[in-house]
Design brief:
Helix content: 25-40%
Number of helices: 14
CATH architecture of the largest domain: 3-Layer(aba) Sandwich
Low-confidence stretches: none
Strand content: 15-25%
Structural class: alpha/beta
Number of strands: 21
CATH topology of the largest domain: UDP-N-acetylmuramoyl-L-alanine:D-glutamate ligase
Shape: globular
Distance between the termini: 53 Å
Radius of gyration: 22 Å
CATH class of the largest domain: Alpha Beta
């Protein structure tokens, strides 16, 4: 049976309650019986889902939205100091709690798995949530995306396991004390918070150091940053149990073979000298490796390998992770959250492998000025894997513009790499432009972490007309 509600979370007010991370915590608290309230910039299906659970959701930010009897105000790193509700919290002496601390308080008393890495966190966390649910273990989970089946990013379960996506972007994953931690990869990203790879390694080492005594770190044996982290952790945390996974011959959970089968993959791993084969119901080698990471973590928590492997086959995807939005005029439109060059390359290669002979058209929206400044060249090179691309202006999210940093950095690099790329500054023009480019049999991929996802249905409408 899961623990109750921490005192500070009895009547919480969430600023930005509609965000992926914030809404998940709010949903769990509402399901546990807390009196949840909050505000968000605009109406959304997430706001409606929260209201259906009994939460009060205000649209827009105003001091009057914060009730005087709130027990805490929950914020993420994206909330600015001059937010009127945050200012009002200070005037009322209401405690301000960071999103990561709120999540950590919900994990207390449960066996927890925290999933970290520069890429793949949402998918791997989702795989575990689905598999554990399939095994009737009724886990609680908090994920950065909506599961395709349940259609939600979080749930309170009556079991004793909590699976959480652990965000390294602002070092908040250092707040957790997991029984099992997964590190999928370690790369330079989040340039506003990390100045170097050494800072990132130090942050991940701190995360690993928070694993409970007798806990386990599950880490990739293939990705260079993860391999370096493993070396450092074995030096600084010699008592920590480390389990490696991957295609490397040195991996503890070794991938023997990944066989693409259309939009699925068949994966064979070697465990204790024995072969175990299971199906991953999404395309792409990187998703198959995520499933192996989930398998290794579940085994570390004491779940029988054969049972877990079979249950992992029930995972059918996460919204925005190569999600099929529909088909019209013989053209399939697929949505991808990829916004880092490594993610972009992996998803484009996965689509190439899943749809042999199809033309691949990409609508890419860069995310963050700082990321574009540092990785724009690599983003452009990744787009060379597409047959043609449309590149939008940078989605700023929480950042202010940086002089001289525009989508032109990506377009120039893509052109130099031989890509067929077009700049479109007016997002409203994209659906018509793409519909004019697409031919029967083509695949259209909307790609990025911003509001480019809204274009999929609009493209389908234009294709149908």
């Amino acid at each position: 049976m899961a623990p109750g509600i921490p005192a500070a979370m009895e009547r919480p007010h969430f600023i930005g309650i509609g965000g992926a991370g914030m809404s998940g915590i709010a949903k769990i608290l509402a399901q546990r019986g807390a009196k949840v309230a909050g505000s968000d910039a605009k109406e959304s299906p997430t706001a409606d889902a929260l209201r259906a659970l009994g939460a009060t959701v205000h649209i827009g930010h105003a001091a009057g939205h914060l009730a005087d009897d709130a027990t805490s105000v929950v914020v993420s790193s994206a909330i600015r100091a001059d937010n009127p509700e945050l200012v009002r919290a200070g005037e009322l002496s209401i405690p301000v709690v960071h999103r990561s601390d709120a999540l950590a308080s919900l994990m207390g008393g449960l066996r927890s798995i925290a999933v970290a890495g520069t890429h793949g966190k949402t998918t791997t966390t989702s795989m575990l949530a689905v598999a554990l649910s399939e095994l009737d273990l009724d886990p609680s989970y908090a994920i950065g995306g909506d599961l395709a089946g349940p259609g939600t990013n979080a749930a309170h379960g009556e079991g004793d396991i909590f699976v959480a996506e652990a965000d390294e972007s602002d070092r908040s994953f250092q707040k957790y004390d997991p029984d099992v931690a997964i590190v999928l990869n370690v790369e330079l990203d989040h340039h506003a918070n990390y100045a170097s790879m050494d800072e990132i390694y130090e942050s991940f080492e701190t995360f690993a150091g928070k694993i409970v005594p007798d806990g386990t770190l599950v880490v990739s044996a293939d990705q260079s940053g993860a391999v370096e982290l493993t070396r450092r952790v074995r030096e600084t945390l010699p008592a920590l149990t480390v389990v490696t996974y991957g295609e490397s011959g040195t991996a503890d959970v070794r991938v023997h073979k990944i066989t693409p089968r259309g939009l699925t993959s068949e994966v064979t791993v070697v465990l204790g000298g024995k072969f175990l084969t299971f199906t991953v119901s999404v395309p792409g080698r990187h998703y198959a490796l995520n499933a192996v990471a989930a398998l290794a973590a579940g085994i570390a928590l004491g779940i029988p390998a054969h049972n877990l492997a079979s249950a992992l086959g029930k995972y059918t995807g996460v919204k925005r992770r190569l999600q099929l939005k529909g088909e019209a005029a013989g053209v399939q439109v697929i949505d991808s959250y990829a916004h880092h060059p490594t993610e972009m390359t992996a998803d484009l290669e996965a689509m190439r492998g899943a749809a042999t002979g199809a033309r691949l058209l990409v609508v890419f929206q860069p995310h963050l000025f700082s990321r574009t400044q540092e990785l724009g060249t690599e983003m452009g090179q990744a787009l060379a894997l597409a047959d043609a691309s449309v590149v939008l202006d940078i989605y700023p999210a929480r950042e202010d513009p940086v002089p001289g940093v525009t989508s032109a950095l990506i377009i120039d690099a893509a052109t130099a790499a031989g890509a067929d790329v077009t700049a479109v500054h007016d997002k409203e023009r994209v659906p018509e432009a793409v519909a004019g480019m697409a031919k029967p049999g083509d695949l259209v991929l909307t790609m990025g972490a911003g509001d480019v996802t809204d274009l999929g249905p609009q493209i389908l409408d234009h294709l149908s007309s």
